[in-house]
């Protein structure tokens, strides 16, 4: 176990949480703070959380022209709000290098993202427009199948069959090619097992699971099994263990803790290597565990990783180094 104090170690880290939802409609209180938000600037400062991926969450609707148009309007509006956070002490970043520079200068770094490729509709050209608006990763699906791919959790209320495409659709394959070409990370969280494995095989660049956990420790359809973890590692990808209690341990066993989260990180590190695992909260989108209920409590996660026996260097990789390295690979592949 590292002999560096938790507080000193935490202060030294480039801590990067790769999945946080933005409340919508926008409440305009990110800078001043609000009791009903898990993430705002004051809480980020108190918790020493230095970089975040803020996701424009697009709820899955009907696979119709009207549904796609509504999603397209929403995603542009949400990315506009995220981009508008640029200002004193906050930097909206489009590259790994800019993220590091912002943090080194004492700013909070924000990387915009999209949750649910439903926003693309049936037009792969929209990917480049979304990248131009700042998005640096996009989950292919949310709960419910869309025109791109099958999701891990079908939606009966949307008349989803168990499988719609058998993984990726032809359109989904085009979208991945566009994401690779413009330097946008392919995010396989929320996708079905077949979709995930096909995306890893198809993508020219490594993929990310921005908010998923280990299925061997908690048998939830949103988690990745050992074969999926192995495949992810072989491609150079990263899985970001998330603070969603039901993904960390069965609900019947109570609310998960930061030690449960650290146990999933340790399991994945032992299985596929510490270079392939990171951390996310899913705050303001359902994420909340004992010891990490909002951004202000982030130091507790570092302490839990120390209790698992990770070294300072390994914790630095887990907390942000691995994800930034992955983003650099995607940038180089696009270039």
TrEMBL record:
Gene Ontology MF, one: metallodipeptidase activity
Descriptive protein name: Dipeptidase
Signal sequence range: none
Coiled coil: none
Pfam families: Peptidase_M19 (PF01244)
GO biological process, one term: proteolysis
